[in-house]
Amino acid sequence: MRLRRSGAGGDRAARETQILGWILVAPAMLLVAALVLYPLTQGFKQSIRSGGFLFGELPGYVGSRNYRDVLSDQTSRDAMRHTVEYVLLAVSLELVLGIAVAVTLHRVFRGRGIVLAILILPWALPSVVSGVLWRRVFDPDNGLLNSVLLNLHVISEPHVWLASGRGAIVYITLVHVWGVLPLVSLVLLAGLQSIPDEVYSASAVDGAGPWRQFRYVTLPLLRPSIAIALTVGTLLAISIFDEIYVLNGTALNTRSILIQVYNTTFVTADFAHGTALAFLLAAATAILGGGYALLLRRATV
Asked: What residues make up the domain containing 179?
């Protein structure tokens, strides 16, 4: 009988603890619902309704028509293609350069703290400030890059760097990588510092040189950090906006999907198609985020 009473008392205490937990969490859940879920719901409703009287039609339910429209629109598809190019180029550079920087800073040398402080500086700057600084570099009239190349006689006349399609995307991606690379490098550096020195000592005893240690010891043990860096870099590259807008505005040759969302929603006031495009981007980001979460889980198992 005493065991039963003790068990009943324990169950009652567990229920009371659970109820108390829900009571304490309820205000935060209500706040999240008010600030996140409600706007998402209203935005989704807007994405399945017509554009309204501004476009000569009565507001009403149109289903998936807005989604089909933005997917068939050539400008939107070009923006999607540009975004894919930004992501592929940025993530590739960030991983390669991040590993190189992390391996370099993993070794102790004089002035390492100063180098780390300088490395963090681009990441600490807001992306708008970075864009303004780099606009001064790429300015076709009196930019720093044209001035240096003219003085070195590499070019004979000032070059408009952001006028071409592929070249402009590369230059803007480099600006983006300049700001994100410190974060990726610090993530990878933390992963390197978590690898025990005994592993390298044991591999050296077995005759492994620096390259074999890097290939068969460092990279496999660095997989969790690489997965995190890959996730962060991809999500930041998908949401690239400030650098493009500051450097080249809403020009078609460098327009990303977020620039297209902004232009559709706020410049042309087409909220229906703008929210539909935004939800397509959110869905793609969620799918990628889920895939990277699975990749990270496998890497840590």
From this structure: 75-300
Nearest to 279 by CA among 250, 257, 263, 249: 257
Burial label for 140, CB within 10 Å (0-12, 13-18, 19+), is: middle
94-to-100, 182, 215, 234 alpha-carbon distances in Å: 10, 9, 19, 10
CB neighbour list of residue 227: distance below 8 Å, 6 or more residues apart: 292, 295, 296, 299
Mark whether 101 and 18 lie in a shared domain. no
pLDDT in tens, 68-124: 999 999 999 999 999 999 999 999 999 999 999 998 888 878 888 888 888 888 888
| Ramachandran angles phi, psi of 125, nearest 5° | -75, 140
Q: Is 88 in the same domain as 236?
A: yes
Q: What is the CATH number of the domain that holds 88?
A: 1.10.3720.10
pLDDT of residue 105: 87
Tell me if 134 sits within 8 A of 145, measured CB to CB.
no
pLDDT value at residue 227 = 86
* Number of DSSP helices (H) and strands (E) in the chain, helices first: 15, 0
pLDDT mean over 23-41: 86
Instruction: Please say whether the beta carbons of 179 and 123 come within 8 A.
Output: yes
Total-model pTM: 0.83
Closest CA to 66 of 261, 266, 289: 261
